[in-house]
Amino acid sequence: MKKIAVILSGSGVFDGAEIHETVLALLAIEQEGASWHCFAPNIDQYHVINHLTGEETTETRNVLIEAARIARGNIEDIVNLKPIEYDALLIPGGFGAVKNLSNFAIKGAKYEINPDVKKACQAFAQEEKPAAYLCIAPTMIPAIYGPGAKGTIGTDPETAKAFNAMGGEHIDCPVDDFVLDQKRRLLTTPAYMLAGSISEAASGINKLVKHLVQLA
After folding, report:
1. Which residue, 82, 102, 159, 175, has fewest beta-carbon neighbours within 10 Å?
2. Residue 77 to residues 40, 114, 135, 144, 156: CA-CA distances in angstroms?
3. pTM greater than 0.70
């Protein structure tokens, strides 16, 4: 059975991993006959958002502990992720990807990636194992794969401009499809960067996961 490592960034679209995208991806992985195991950095979130009001709170929450909610406790600290033990990588979106895994949401094209996250992602790249980045998570690709890496965040012009400014090659993509960088075995799909419903998000995620498992 092929094993897919999944890196989460908390729990909740505005300050963590996008829950719908994560669950859809985990379901698709199982339906393709593969298994998943989740990882997350053991760090405090950048901030905590009240998802009812959209307002920032004064709470402090831990990314790993929050991500464990989605994974039902089946999760480990990312420092324990050994790419040699897995066949592929997948990272869902949500603002946690650009607030907790990286600080793209704060610094834009001058962003940095959490060192443990970057180490794990670069290890998959160096071993030429397939990797999938969903929604806003592809903004990390240029810092991991270097100049010329192809990917999509959908059609948002400002984010696409930043992706290109960081050395990537952005390709516009509809919600029900994905972009494949064949050379780097790298897959991306817009998901909730474009999706207006769970079904729309699933249309691209399911196609992406199917191809990811085939490549693994």
Report:
1. 82
2. 5, 13, 23, 20, 32
3. yes
